[in-house]
Amino acid sequence: MNLMRLLRGDTDAPEWYDFPGGVHPPENKTQSLRGPIAEFPLQEEYVVPLNQHIGAVSVPVVEVGESVLTGQVIAEAAGFISAPAHAPTSGTVTAIEDRPVPHPSGLTTGCIIIRADGHDTWRPRTPWAHLQDHHHTDLLARIQNAGLTGLGGASFPTAVKLAADRNHVDTLIVNGTECEPYITADHALMRERPQQILRGIEVAHELYDFRRILIGVEDNKPDAVSALRRALTAIPAELEARIELRVFPTRYPSGGEKQLVYLLTGQEVPAGGLPTDLGMLCHNVGTLAALADAVFDDRPLISRITTLTGNQLPWQGNIEVRLGTDIRTILDWAGYQPDPNRAERIIMGGPMMGFALDQRQLPLVKATNCLLVPTEQELPTPPPAKPCIRCGQCEQVCPAGLLPQQLMWFAQSHEWDKAESHHLFDCIECGACAYVCPSHIPLVQYYRFAKGSIRREQAEHRQSERARLRFEARQARLEREAAEKEARRRQRAEAARARQAEQATTPTADSSPADPVAAAVARSKARKQASQSAAGRATATVSPGAPELTREQLSARLDSQRRRLEKAEAKLAAAAPEHQKAMETTVSKLREQIHKTEQQLADRPEREA
Amino acid sequence: MIILWSILALLFLAALFGALLGYASVRFKPEGDPIIDQIDDILPQTQCGQCGYPGCRPYAEAIANGDPINKCPPGGESTIQELADLLDVEPLPLDAEHGEEKPKQVAIIREDECIGCTKCIQACPVDAILGAAKQMHTVIASECTGCDLCVDPCPVDCIDMVPVETSIQTWHWQAPQPDYKLIATDAGRSGEAA
C-alpha cells in the first residue's frame, strides 16, 4: 500500500489507504498563494439569493424599504433541509425580486437586494466564551440560525449534518484536502487561521465527543500542515490527544467525501449511503472555521474566502468577501480586462468540477469557492468530441470504481434503469474520466443529464401517483355522496309513506293499495269479515240441524212439548179472564210446535230405516 | 414389463405435477389483473379523458382488452414507447384524433374575474381547485395535472392553461450534443435531426 512504509518495516496501520483511480492534473495553486487573504472592500449593493444551499428555498422575513443590520436574518429556513440567509451589511432592502444567480442553468431566482449604508453596523451580538456554559440544544439552534452550509462547494446545510445521531458517530473527518486544481481558499485558511479551524473542531467535539478526529491534508500544502501542527500544540491536551493530522500524496479527487473517508480509515461508504452510516462526520476546514465564528463570536455566515485565479486576472489571490457581492466588481477589483476578441469564460469552482458563468453581473454565493478566469493557453476550450474508441482509460481513473463508458452509452440511449443498476448515483461528477478521455467526450455532462432525467422521471411518477390517489379519493367521495343522497331520499320517502298510512287509519282517509299499513288494515278487515261470515254459516247450520236429530230426540221433544201443552191448557182453564188471551196464544204456539215436530217425526222413519 | 413401469412412473409424475400446479394456481392466485395495474402505472394519471375513457384506469383496462396504445396525448411518445415495451407490441404514432402532445401545463384562474360558480371545482378530476359558492376559486398548482377539463365549464372564461416554466429547482442538465452531429450536412446524411 504505502511502499515506503513497508520498506521501512512499519507494519502498523498505514497512515492512508489507496483509493482506486484518480488523476494528476496540473495544480496551478502557487499563483494565488503569493499573498495573504485580502479583505474585499464593502460595496454599495448586495444581492442575496434565497437558494444558496441544497434543499428548500428560504423564505424572506424582511420587507422592501426595511432597514437591516449586519448579520440580521433576512430569510428564514423553510423546512429541515434548508438554511437562513443574513444581511451581509447594514442598509436598506430595496427590492425582493428574481435576479440571475450563479447556476449552470443561467436562470433567475428570488433574491433580496440590499443597498448598503456604508456604516456596516452589526446587530447586537452575544459572544460565548465557553461552550460548557451552554446547553446542546442552544448550541444547535445557534448553528442552525447562523446559516452555515458546507463551504467546500456542495453547500449542504451544516446544521442538518450536525443533527446526526450522537450515539452512532465517533469519528470526525476534517477535509483540508482541496484537491481541485487552482483553488486555494482552504489552503490559505489553514495557513493563516489554523486556530480558527481547531476552534470549530472544538465545537463539533462538544456536540459529539468524538473518539478520534482525523485531519486530512494533501502533501502539496506543507505550509498549511506546519501551521496546523503549530496550532495543535496550543489546544487542550484532552482534545489534542484525539486529533491526528494525516498527510497523503496529492491526487485528484482525494477531497471527495467518500474518497477521503476511505483514504483515512480504509472503510468504504456504502453505495447510496453517507459517512454517518460508518459513524463518521466529514466537514470542510472552511465550514469548521465558519462554525467557530458562528458559535463563539455570534457571527453568522455573511462572508467567505474565495480564490481569484486564472491568468486573465492581473491580481490573483484569496479574498474574504461578503456574500452577495457582485462578481463583476470583484473581477474589476482584480483588474480583469475582458478580451474583446474572445468569448468570455469565467468559471465558478475549479477547472474539473466548476461551471462557466454566462454573465458577470451575478452575486457571489455561499458555494463560490473560486472564480477562475483562464486564458485560452492555460485552459484550452475542449476540442470537438469524437466518437468513443473504447480505450477504457475512463474506467482506470474513476475514483468510485464505476464503468464510465457504459454509463455514457446508457445515458445516450436513455436506458435509465440500466444506468441506475450500474450505480450512476454513486458518481461524484469529479470529471476524472472526461479529463483522460482521448476523444474529449464530455462524460460528466452525460451523467448529469442522466441523473437529472431520472430524478425528473421519479418526480413525475410521484406526482402522477399522487394524482391517481387524489382521483380515486374523489371518485370514492362522489360515490359515497351519491349513496348518502340515495339513502336520504329513501328515508324521506319512507317517512312520507308512514305519514300517509297514519292518515289512512282515520275513517275519512281512503287507503291506497300501495300503502302497506293500509293494506294491513284492509287485511285485518278482510279477516274480520271472513270470521264473521264463518260464524254466520255456523249459526245457519244449527237451525237446519233439526232434521239431523234422531227419532228418539224428536219423540222426546214431542213428549216435552205435549207436557208443556197440557200444563198450559190447565193454566188456561184456571187463568183469570184478563190473562186468557195471552195463554191462548201460548197454547196455540205450543200446538203449532207439536204439529211441526209430529211432521218431522213422520218424515224420519224412511231415512232411519 | 419395464414399459409398464415407465408408463406408470410417468403417469405418477404427471399426476403429481398436475396436482402441484393446480394447487399453486389456487393458492397463489393474483388479486385482480396485474397487467392493468402495470399499464395504469405507466399512464400519466392526468385523468383528462382525452382517450375517450373516463380516467386513466378505464383506459388501462381497455388497453388490456386490446384497445390501441396511442390514445394518450399527455403521456405522448414516451408513454406509447413504454406501453409498447410492456405489452410487446409495435409502438404507434400518437392518434391525432385524441389531441396532440403538449408541454406540461397548469391551470391558472384569473382570480379577479372569477364569479365563484364552482363549475370548475366539479369538473376537476383531482380536486385541485379550491373555492366555495360565490367565493373566489384558485388552483392548487402543485396538484394540477394540466388536464384542462376545468376550462370549458367556466362561464366567464377566466381559466388559462399556461405551460409550466423551468425553475432553478426543476432544471437539469441536457445531454451534450456531440459536435460531429452539430454539422447540419452530417446530420442530414445520417438521417438524424440535429
In summary, what is this structure?
The complex is a heterodimer of chains A (about 600) and B (about 190). Chain A has about 600 residues and is α/β, with parallel strands linked by helices. Chain A contains 18 helices and 17 strands.
What report would you give on this structure?
The complex is a heterodimer of chains A (609) and B (194). By secondary structure, chain A is of the alpha/beta class. Helices cover 42% and strands 13% of the residues of chain A. Chain A has 18 helices and 17 strands. Chain A has helices at residues 3-7, 136-145, 158-161, 185-192, 194-208, 222-232, 237-240, 257-265, 285-296, 327-333, 393-397, 404-412, 416-421, 432-436, 443-505, 516-542, 551-574, 577-608; strands at residues 38-39, 45-49, 59-60, 67-68, 73-76, 85-86, 91-100, 108-116, 171-176, 212-218, 243-248, 280-284, 303-309, 317-322, 346-348, 355-357, 370-372. In chain A, strand 13 and strand 14 (317-322) form a beta hairpin. In chain A, helix 5 (194-208) packs across helix 9 and helix 17 (551-574) packs antiparallel against helix 18 (577-608). Residues 538-546 of chain A have low confidence and may be disordered. Chain B is mostly helical. Among the domains of chain B are: 34-98, Electron transport complex subunit B, putative Fe-S cluster (3-methyladenine DNA Glycosylase II, Chain A, domain 3, Orthogonal Bundle); 105-163, Alpha-Beta Plaits (2-Layer Sandwich), CATH 3.30.70.20. In chain B, 37% of the residues lie in helices and 7% in strands. Chain B is built from seven helices and four strands; from the N terminus they run H-H-H-H-E-H-E-E-E-H-H. Chain B has helices spanning 2-27, 34-42, 56-64, 76-87, 119-123, 179-182, 184-189; strands at 105-109, 129-130, 138-139, 159-163. In chain B, helix 2 crosses helix 3. The longest helix of chain B is centred in the N-terminal third of the chain and has 26 residues, at 2-27. Chain B is elongated. Chain B starts with a helix and ends in a 5-residue tail after the last helix. Chain A binds chain B through residues 51, 57, 101, 103-105, 107-109, 384-387, 411-412, 441-442, 445-446, 448-449, 451-453, 455-456, 459-460, 464-468, 470-471, 473-475, and chain B through 40, 43-47, 55-56, 125-128, 143, 145, 166-176, 178-180.
